[in-house]
Amino acid sequence: AAPPRARRGHVPGAGGAGSGGMSAMMAAMKQRGCLFSMWQDLGPALPHGRDHRSRTLRQELFDAYDVPGAGVLYQANVVKGVMRRLPYIMGLTDPKVVLNRAFKATVETVPSIAKTGSDKMDRNQFRFFLVYLWHYFKLYDFFVCRDATPSRKAGPDDFHGFLPMLREWGCHEVDAWAASPERAFAALGRGGPGGADVYFDDLAEACLRRCLLRWNSEDDGEERDHAIQALARTHPHVVASKADLSSGPSSGLASGATSR
Q: What is the CATH number of domain 19-237?
């Protein structure tokens, strides 16, 4: 049976709240210094850790989202399932867009166990999908609490503020970015000359794709082994060998390119 669902996120401003009310709520949120009422509300929705409790809940969620029992998750099912579990997130008008972008970034960056299609992910990729989302919301928390102006874009100062977090998360390119943050911002966010502001989601995805590369290379392999065991039962003819897995993604991201 599927585990109990967390509170469903909803669109801010629904139910008659106008832009003035939205601005007031965002300002109050900034004064509290946090995006979520409690970060632990997000934990059960995104069990990304390596501890026993997170692994158990993650396995339960995977099985609940794997409706046909194929050993892989279809994009529509996992996005729908995670969206239902997300707590209320102030200022996030369309969580589905965030989830779909996270799904795409994960399957394009983390090698799959079996070649089952770009609209599916295995157990190992599912964990990195949750890891991506957790860190996305960490960046979003910093971004919104720094300046709660609705619908604002990200600028070079926001990117500079991301760097300590990205360094802590093991992104190996941070030192190079810190040496020339304006140039790195223009390249990552595609802001062009002069460091024009860009959409937060574009900048966050560019940064987190590079983090995914590092996280995947340092993974302990246990989740990958579980994925191999699951797929060996349903896709025995397409399960990749461990030698294939060690070769890494073939999308060119290792050289610094960012797919869209």
A: 1.10.238.10
In sequence order, what E strands does 203-247 have?
none
With beta carbons less than 8 A apart as the criterion, state whether 109 and 123 touch. no
Length of the chain: 260
Domain boundaries, the chain: 19-237
- Average pLDDT of the chain to the nearest whole number: 75
What is the residue type of 204?
A: A
Dihedral pair phi/psi, residue 74, rounded to 5°: -80, 145
pLDDT (tens digit per residue) in 138-190: 999 899 888 867 678 899 999 999 999 999 998 889 999 999 988 899 888 66
Question: What whole-number distance in Å separates Cα of residue 123 and Cα of residue 112?
Answer: 9
HEC string of 67-78 equals CCCCCCEEHHHH
Q: Which two tokens stand for residue 181?
A: 């943050």
